[in-house]
Amino acid sequence: MRNVVRLIWFDLKPELSPPVWIVMEWAVFLVQAGVYGAIISQLVTNPSIGDYRQFYSVGLVIMITFDMASHTGRHFVEHAHEGRLPYLLSLPISRAKLFLTIALQGATELALMLAVPLTVTLLIIGNLTWISVVACILTLFFLGFGVAGLMLGLSFIAFKSSDLYTAMVTGLSAIIIRFSTVLYPFIVLPSQYASAAAFSPLTYGSDLVRFILGFDPAILLDPFYAVAVLAGLAASTLGLGVFLAQRLVEGVKSA
Amino acid sequence: MFAVETQKLTKQYGKVYALKKLDFTIDQNEIMVLLGPNGSGKTTLLLILATVLKPTSGKAEVMGLDVAAQPTQVRKLLGVAFQEARGFWRHKPADILRFHASVCGVPKTKAKSTIEDLFKDLELWDARNKLFMHLSGGQAKRLEVSKVLVQRPKFAILDEPTSQVDLRGKRQIWEKIRELQEEGSTILVATNEVREAEYLADRVTVLDRGKFVVSDSVRRLKDSIAGGDIVELEIDTSEPKSLEKALNLIEGTVKITNAEENRFKAYVSMAESWVPKMTEICYQNKARIHSIRITEPSLDDVFLHFTGRTLREDDK
């Protein structure tokens, strides 16, 4: 396990010296939640939603989680294209530990990125307790693993064409966020949008976090259903992603 | 036990064979040089032995360990310097080598002194705290080779270790590779630089289009070309025709040409055994030798001889 930690720290170190990217992400969140959130909450006055800024802040946290998880998947593809992956594959670390490293590094980056946004969101909602923090983090990590696995699963496209992969991921990201309950609750979605939103993993992540934080369950999906979907998504996409990626990078599929 | 042994090793991409039924061995503590043009399968073979790629079929063993069945154990024995020195753009050379040494289990104190010595010997001292992205191609390549030199593995794989490196740097790297061998490492070098192969190789294996062509010492490969050595002679004789006839009878003579009256060009198999016999004949025929110039075949000629193509042909 020491090599796993070494590898994570080696990759994280340049990100933290100085931590410009993380601080900028925090700043963007604070501006969005503080300025835009305050203004938009004046316009959105649906009584079932309550204070829209609270709803919106949770949405921002979900979007950061999605971005970071996508970044982890993309990172893997970039490693392959930049020639770093063969080096990593030649190190005296088992494949399982190497993929664990990639997952844990993504989780660490996610935790760093979310430290301020999640704390501020919990403060805005007035629910900064150990239980809410732990439950939210677990949910967000499950969501993150699911999305990262999805991106890893799509990485086979990048081995054919990195441009196509970038275009696919950008388009998919836009669709997954828009057709979800990240920014608006399920009950206000027109039926055709609602059926599309049911396929977005972000729908389940954002509704589960909102349920944990005490939003009205009437505007949310069934939390047990959300837990099942997120756990299933994380296990299946991450498993499939690792399987595909391993076969691709070691050239087995091509045989 | 061979340090490396492959049996019918095959790597296939769709319908294209990168390696086809390759049987190949490396002895313990040997420097084996893989020679072949681009696309000959050198890098594929190295990546399979490094457990980065998996073979389509066949078997490859490193120090008796199967690369497909025991990859993690194999990785503990080997160090690789890749063809393309890329990847850690935002890291510094000192950090990269320290990290590599720690992951490969080199004790901290030993790693510290080895890294310092390498930076000095390979002229990377001034670049040690620059970001990788700011290194020149030659510096990046030297850093790539340094990873293996810090690690001192039992089995070292070096893919074109001196490409982009200046002549002085090449010599320094070659010396370091030789030192590694003296410490007991087995070394596999892939190159298409003939001089590198001639300097380093205990044996050379020639690959062409994924297939094994020939494997032997540089000397024997050169000697195996009938008429590969060229001996140019300037001889003062009154009877050039009879001298030419006599020279033609020396064992190992393939062809003699007599372009000008006193100038002969002999295509022979082994110049070192042919020349003494030639001087004896000249002495008996009262012919006076003014000059002798011997040109031996290069490994490029060896490649041409065995494949019918030059090493650079596929690069064009």
How would you sum up the major sheet of chain A?
none
What share of the residues of chain A lie within helices?
over 70%
Q: Based on the structure given, which CATH architecture of the largest domain in chain B is correct?
A: 3-Layer(aba) Sandwich
Number of helices of chain B: 11
**CATH homologous superfamily caption of the largest domain in chain B:** P-loop containing nucleotide triphosphate hydrolases
SS strand fraction of chain A: under 5%
**SSE order of chain A, as H and E?**
HHHHHHHHHH
Indicate the percent of residues in helices of chain B. Answer: 25-40%
Quickly count the domains of chain A: 1
Instruction: Assess the beta-strand content of chain B as a share of residues.
Output: 25-35%
Write down the CATH topology of the largest domain in chain B: Rossmann fold
Please write the CATH class name of the largest domain in chain B.
Alpha Beta
Number of helices of chain A: 10
Strand order of the largest sheet of chain B: 6-7-8-3-9-10
Oligomeric status: heterodimer
- Protein chain pair with the most extensive contact, residues per chain: A-B, 25 and 32 residues
If you compute it from the alpha carbons, what radius of gyration of chain A comes out, rounded to the nearest whole angstrom? 19 Å
Whole-angstrom Rg of chain B? 24 Å
Judged by helices, strands and strand pairing, the structural class of chain B is alpha/beta
Q: Whole-number average pLDDT of chain A?
A: 84
